[in-house]
């Protein structure tokens, strides 16, 4: 009797396991993420399970919010300093009582695998077992083997990139370097993220620019001084070990302005005399400026367009940024990136890693673009798309046009330190399953599939993000 939908070739599972075994124990390269560097710089014991695994995880808190459970009840800090739940066990029990909401979601997969593989606790999360699971994880957190640096070693992390603004003095990274953990070729490095000094609509933009100028020793009252300050801060980041920049814009639009027009727009921004259209134009222009700087200083350039930031205005008003209020939107790449690619797309000195939140663009725009410009590589599915099914769809839709070697490997893009090995493991399993399907169909010999497996998991991200010295 036929079984539609099910994989019917019995060889597939075995081949997938064999290919997964090729990559299972390779070191982890984490070239893009948002772990707080203080975590590893200070190496203090983790707090309770709730503050470690629930409070900072906006995948978790946004699902609960969708069912009417406000972030206050989950201990998420308020912008006004108002009261929120402070009892970690109450927060944990609240998640357990609503665990059914996460059926079929990657959040459940990541958390359950974290319980089992990181904390070696095999207690299911239910309303009745919540306290038992909490106590078992809390006991683990009290052990020296579960402090951040010890876990870093156990995870097999070779390099972890955090993300900082040019207004950051990099003091945490200086401490990491002093301890032998940071600096060029170090295990923990930073990523240069200039959004808060580029986005004219950002609250406090002028103050951020002034702060950057102070750190750089440049006068940012002029556009020329502003560009000089950005270059000085990039130099400071590179001295601290940074190999890439990251740019999170609402759209992928790029524009090539004359220096005079850019200066006028910048000066109007300082006066607070700009529209939303002006802000979009300035962001679009600065992408080309950063590409020019990357050719000069060698930083890999990551573009993360497509998020409608803080779409949930009530959530932003109460709790600020990065708490689950952002929504993906349709994004044009073919026309939006044309000025950038016309100017720099054929320059092999430039390396652009392009991400999307709009998977309808995978085969229509992104794969053909990556297959047509030597400067362009496709970043892994991220945020809303970093799920087993979406990662599989990514491989199925981009490989035809871009192949494997115009993609940049997996990035975990997470603040949740303890989920890093789990996320990489899921990505490796997805790639193993996809490669196994090619072997089963006689489209790829097994030895080549095994070589590709190791490249996707380890060699590609290490090379593309210039981490060879790690």
Describe what this molecule looks like in 3D.
The chain is mainly alpha-helical and 470 residues long. It is built from 20 helices and nine strands. 46% of the residues are buried. Its EC number is 5.3.1.12.
How would you summarize this macromolecular structure in one to three sentences?
This protein has 470 residues and is mainly α. It contains 20 helices and nine strands.
Helix-strand pattern, N to C?
A: HEHHHHHHHEHEHHHEHHEEHEHEHEHHH
Distance between the termini: 53 Å
**The top level CATH class name of the largest domain:** Alpha Beta
CATH topology of the largest domain: TIM Barrel
What percentage of the residues does DSSP assign to strands (E)? 5-15%
Low-confidence stretches: none
InterPro entries: Metal_Hydrolase (IPR032466), Uronate_isomerase (IPR003766)
Protein name: Uronate isomerase
Enzyme class: isomerase
Pfam families: UxaC
List the helices and strands and how they pair.
Blueprint: H1 11-24, E1 28-30, H2 37-42, H3 49-53, H4 58-66, H5 88-97, H6 106-118, H7 130-141, H8 148-155, E2 157-161, H9 171-178, E3 188-189, H10 195-198, H11 205-216, H12 223-239, E4 244-247, H13 259-271, H14 276-297, E5 300-303, E6 307-308, H15 313-319, E7 327-328, H16 338-344, E8 352-354, H17 361-370, E9 376-378, H18 388-402, H19 420-440, H20 446-464
Parallel strand pairs: 1-2, 2-3, 4-5, 5-8, 8-9
Antiparallel strand pairs: 6-7
Helix pairs in contact: 1-19, 1-20, 11-12, 13-14, 14-16, 17-18, 18-19, 19-20
């Amino acid at each position: 009797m036929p079984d539609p939908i099910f994989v019917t070739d019995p060889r597939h599972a075995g081949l997938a396991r064999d290919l997964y075994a090729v990559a299972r124990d390779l070191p982890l390269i984490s070239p893009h993420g948002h772990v707080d560097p203080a975590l590893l710089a200070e190496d203090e014991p983790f707090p309770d399970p709730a503050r470690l695994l629930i409070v900072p995880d906006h995948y978790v808190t946004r699902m609960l919010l969708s069912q009417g459970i406000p972030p206050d009840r989950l201990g998420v800090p308020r912008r006004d300093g108002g009261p929120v739940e402070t009892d970690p066990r109450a927060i944990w029990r609240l998640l357990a009582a609503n665990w059914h909401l996460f059926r079929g979601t990657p959040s459940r997969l990541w958390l359950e695998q974290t319980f089992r593989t990181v904390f070696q606790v095999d207690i299911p999360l239910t309303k009745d077992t919540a306290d038992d699971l909490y106590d078992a994880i809390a006991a683990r957190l009290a052990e020296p083997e579960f402090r951040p640096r010890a876990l870093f070693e156990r995870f097999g992390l070779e390099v972890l990139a955090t993300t900082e603004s040019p207004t950051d003095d990099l003091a945490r990274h200086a401490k990491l370097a002093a301890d032998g953990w940071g600096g060029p070729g170090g295990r923990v490095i930073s990523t240069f993220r200039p959004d808060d000094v580029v986005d004219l609509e950002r609250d406090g933009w002028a103050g951020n620019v002034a702060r950057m100028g102070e750190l750089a020793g440049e006068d940012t009252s002029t556009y020329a001084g502003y560009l000089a300050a950005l270059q000085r801060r990039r130099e400071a980041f590179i001295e601290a070990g940074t190999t890439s920049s990251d740019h999170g814009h609402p759209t992928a639009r790029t524009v090539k302005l004359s220096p005079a027009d850019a200066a006028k727009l910048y000066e109007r921004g300082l006066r607070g005399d700009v529209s939303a259209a002006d802000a979009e134009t300035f962001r679009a222009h600065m992408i080309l400026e950063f590409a020019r700087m990357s050719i000069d200083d060698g930083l890999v350039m990551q573009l993360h367009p497509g998020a409608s930031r803080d779409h949930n205005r009530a959530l932003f008003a109460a709790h600020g940024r990065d708490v689950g209020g952002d929504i993906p939107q349709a994004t044009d790449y073919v026309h939006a990136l044309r000025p950038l690619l016309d100017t720099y797309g054929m320059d092999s000195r430039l390396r652009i890693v392009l991400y999307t939140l709009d998977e309808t663009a995978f085969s229509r725009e992104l794969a053909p673009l990556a297959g047509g410009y030597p400067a362009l590589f496709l970043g892994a599915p991220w945020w809303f798309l970093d799920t087993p099914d979406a990662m599989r769809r990514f491989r199925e839709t981009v490989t035809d046009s871009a192949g494997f070697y115009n993609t940049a490997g997996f990035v975990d893009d997470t603040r949740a330190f303890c989920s890093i090995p789990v996320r990489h493991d899921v990505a490796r399993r997805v790639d193993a399953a996809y490669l196994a399907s090619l072997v089963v169909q006689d489209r790829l010999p097994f030895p080549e599939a095994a070589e590709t497996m190791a490249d996707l998991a380890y060699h590609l991200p290490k090379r593309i993000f210039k981490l060879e010295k790690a």
